[in-house]
């Protein structure tokens, strides 16, 4: 059978080689420190689990839901007001099965074949996949050491800006660990207004920022509501990655277009998951804050630990990731990852999987406890890979 040309836009699964090596090493009894995938290891709060269990016991909740429950939309509105000081109405909210799903599909509502879109590089891979699926042409703006790992709209050429349909911004950034500032956001809003570009902010990590930094919603920036929408995921703050809950929030014309696309392919989120989301959004958030402190302790153990053994890895400022430049005698991040897991059992992700400017780095996910991270650092030191 001849498959679609669209499939050819996507390369081979680069993790396959790394993963099969990991499986082989594990089978040989090698201890693996898996710091590759960004799935939180923290517990989901009991009140969230209970809400899902209670709702699952009710037969009616197993039918198509067909819509976002009004109380779910109200819960998002109340959460945005309380947590982010942003006022939104239910018409400014649409659910999706995680930001991954939402970002993968939103371009279908926004773009025609050949439209230009602005994406950060390095970036979270679905930003690229979503643009390719809708036939858009990505133009990558750099988020590198030179830009402080932040967007710099002044560097985007005017002829590109004039053509651009949307711009994805995502801070705190995966894989970079950088955190935005009011000044950076203000520049982005002014740029988007000037060139009539929709800003799609992917807000996955506002609750994981370090060293006293604070972080909120892009929509709280003056003028952002005129030019932007935001994906707000429950995955990381509430340890609900498998439940697949996120919301697109913001400009109502964009929300309506997004809903129109979704309604062609979906019958609504499983009602027990909607109930769990309501419990998360309306319940206590002390665990969210406590877990941020633990991520910071892990960041300290990893970045401080690696510097202590001679690998100059800067502290990440937020997100659950550390972006580490390759040690001096390495150039290829995939080759380095394979050698690292081989010699030390530590598994991380090659920078080359995060877009054009990702090479030269690897990404560690802070998904192990401090004691395990300390052991991982000791294993790296003992492996001799930094010699
Ligand atoms: C920047 C970013 N956006 C989106 C996602 C996916 O979130 P969700 O679980 O809501 O699909 C991730 C997950 O790692 C992420 O890092």
Secondary-structure element order, N to C: HEHHEHEHEHEHEHEEHHHEHEEEH
Low-confidence stretches: none
CATH fold-level name of the largest domain: Aspartate Aminotransferase, domain 2
Strand order of the largest sheet: 2-8-7-6-5-3-4
Distance, first to last CA: 51 Å
Structural class: alpha/beta
CATH superfamily of the largest domain, by name, is: Type I PLP-dependent aspartate aminotransferase-like (Major domain)
Describe the largest sheet.
7 strands, mixed
Q: Measured on Cα atoms, how large is the radius of gyration?
A: 21 Å
Helical residue percent band: 40-55%
Look at the structure and give the CATH class of the largest domain: Alpha Beta
Mean pLDDT: 96
Enumerate how many helices there are, as a single number: 13
Structurally, the number of domains stands at 2
What compounds are bound to the protein?
Answer: pyridoxal-5'-phosphate
CATH architecture of the largest domain: 3-Layer(aba) Sandwich
Portion of residues in beta strands equals 5-15%
**What is the strand tally?**
12
Shape: globular
How do the strands and helices of this protein lay out in sequence?
Blueprint: H1 15-27, E1 33-34, H2 46-56, H3 70-84, E2 93-96, H4 98-110, E3 116-121, H5 126-133, E4 137-142, H6 158-163, E5 164-169, H7 182-195, E6 198-203, H8 224-227, E7 228-233, E8 246-250, H9 252-265, H10 271-282, H11 286-308, E9 321-325, H12 333-344, E10 346-347, E11 349-350, E12 361-365, H13 370-383
Parallel strand pairs: 1-10, 3-4, 3-5, 5-6, 6-7
Antiparallel strand pairs: 2-8, 7-8, 9-12, 11-12
Helix pairs in contact: 1-12, 2-10, 3-10, 4-5, 4-9, 11-13
Bound molecules: pyridoxal-5'-phosphate.
């Amino acid at each position: 059978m001849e498959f679609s040309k669209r499939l050819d836009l996507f390369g081979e699964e680069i993790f396959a080689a790394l993963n099969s090596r990991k499986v082989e090493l594990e089978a040989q009894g090698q201890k693996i420190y898996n710091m590759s995938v960004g799935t939180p290891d923290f517990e989901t709060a009991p009140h969230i689990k209970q809400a899902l269990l209670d709702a699952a016991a009710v037969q009616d909740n197993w039918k198509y839901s067909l819509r976002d429950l009004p109380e779910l939309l109200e819960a998002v509105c109340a959460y945005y007001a309380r947590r982010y000081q942003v006022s939104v109405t239910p018409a400014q909210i649409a659910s999706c099965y995680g930001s991954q799903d939402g970002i993968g599909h939103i371009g279908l509502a926004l773009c025609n074949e050949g439209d230009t879109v602005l994406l950060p590089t390095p970036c979270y891979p679905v930003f690229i996949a979503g643009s390719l699926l809708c036939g858009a042409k990505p133009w990558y703006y750099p988020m590198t050491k030179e830009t402080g790992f932040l967007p710099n709209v002044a560097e985007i050429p005017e002829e590109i800006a004039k053509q651009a349909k949307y711009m994805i911004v995502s801070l705190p950034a995966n894989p970079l660990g950088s955190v935005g500032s009011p000044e950076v956001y203000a520049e982005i809003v002014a740029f988007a207004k000037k060139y009539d570009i929709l800003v799609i902010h992917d807000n996955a990590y506002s609750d994981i920022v370090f060293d006293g930094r604070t972080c909120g919603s892009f929509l709280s920036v003056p003028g952002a509501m005129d030019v932007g929408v935001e994906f707000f995921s429950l995955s990381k703050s509430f340890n609900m990655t498998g439940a697949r809950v996120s919301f697109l929030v913001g400009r109502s014309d964009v929300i309506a277009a997004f809903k129109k696309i979704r309604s062609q392919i979906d019958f609504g989120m499983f009602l027990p998951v909607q109930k769990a989301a309501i419990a998360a959004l309306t319940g206590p958030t002390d665990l969210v804050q406590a877990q941020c402190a633990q991520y910071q302790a892990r960041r300290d153990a990893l970045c401080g630990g690696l510097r202590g053994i001679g690998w100059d890895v800067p502290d990440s400022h937020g997100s659950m990731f550390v972006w580490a430049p390759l040690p001096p005698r390495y150039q290829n991040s995939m080759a380095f990852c394979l050698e690292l897991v081989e010699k030390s059992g530590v598994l991380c992700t090659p920078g080359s999987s995060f877009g054009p400017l990702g090479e030269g780095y690897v990404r560690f996910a802070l998904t192990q406890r401090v004691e395990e991270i300390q052991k991982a650092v000791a294993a790296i030191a003992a492996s001799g890979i930094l010699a």
